[in-house]
């Protein structure tokens, strides 16, 4: 009996550095350059400030994730925390909203990669690159190819090296171009003529780069001393990622002030050529595509795994979504479905697609902050003195995080809000059906 209980838990082998590496690799720091042009245009050339504002919301939300990971030291997510703290129905709706991130994230990754390859090889149509990404990535995932941890380490080193070189070249170019008068150091952060609403619209897009800071919460059962290390890891991943994004956007604005690009979807390609010539462009493009490709494999695999879990637990039709390939032992149908959905990228641009998946992310982030507030209000008298959150950590900080996330949600472009609302209503209708008009609790997804 004791052995069975012991086997029900994963082995704790990950220290704080390993968890940090996983989170940063999932975020892919080079993504800051993948969306820079779209963000600069949406924010009226206040990209650095937009990243900073997004970091404020993400940092307070990261604190809430950390508190919940400490309270529930098992593999978790916004879906799990909401279900545990509120009820199964609300948990289902947050899970449904989060499904947006999983389902459409591969599409955005492929779209960004295709945009940059099209800039490098303009005679090859964008749709060919998108289809090539989908076919190759789907084939690798179906046969069960996995990226080992050592490849994540190599990939992280390459990405950070390219970011550091990009920052240095931008700084060198900006100082050389400024001449005797010097550069206006505060210019990227202070533009009095730009409406705050425009910067917030940019921040709503900038938040896309932070997606994945919370992914390490799924490693809780494999982390040494999770009550101590997991909250630290989640916060540090958000802060380190934010520092990289703000610095990269800041130096890009110094080197290329304004929002005039040949193609906003691949603006960093143009800036890279301007500051480093053809050699650096080649290095940058190779690094970006490598990061995008690896990220696409992981994102599509996550979609397949989530849909398989929902099929296995009969939230979705088990015959289709609970199918595992008899030879490769992978959710082949789900992976193919994710690839087919990726074809939607042929009709969308980067701005709309990133805003669309951010709709689900902001709802999930808001729910996590509200979970902390509810726990604080419910247990401030009953909890042992050592486990009480305090009014600052249990109420004020998560309230700031929730308000910031809702503000970012409201700042998304109208098309994304409409599509997100339609998705949410579809989820509500489906919940009504599987619970027989809320007469029973929805099945729990065990991921």
From TrEMBL:
InterPro entries: AA-permease/SLC12A_dom, APC_superfamily
PANTHER family: AMINO ACID TRANSPORTER-RELATED, PUTRESCINE IMPORTER PUUP
UniProt name for this protein: Amino acid permease
Sorted UniProt keywords: Membrane, Transmembrane, Transmembrane helix
Subcellular location: Membrane
Main location per the UniProt record: membrane
Transmembrane segments: 14-36, 48-69, 90-112, 124-144, 151-174, 194-213, 233-252, 279-310, 331-350, 356-377, 389-410, 416-434
Membrane topology: Multi-pass membrane protein
GO process terms (BP): transmembrane transport
GO CC, alphabetical: membrane
Organism: Paraburkholderia rhynchosiae
Residues annotated as domain Amino acid permease/ SLC12A: 31-378
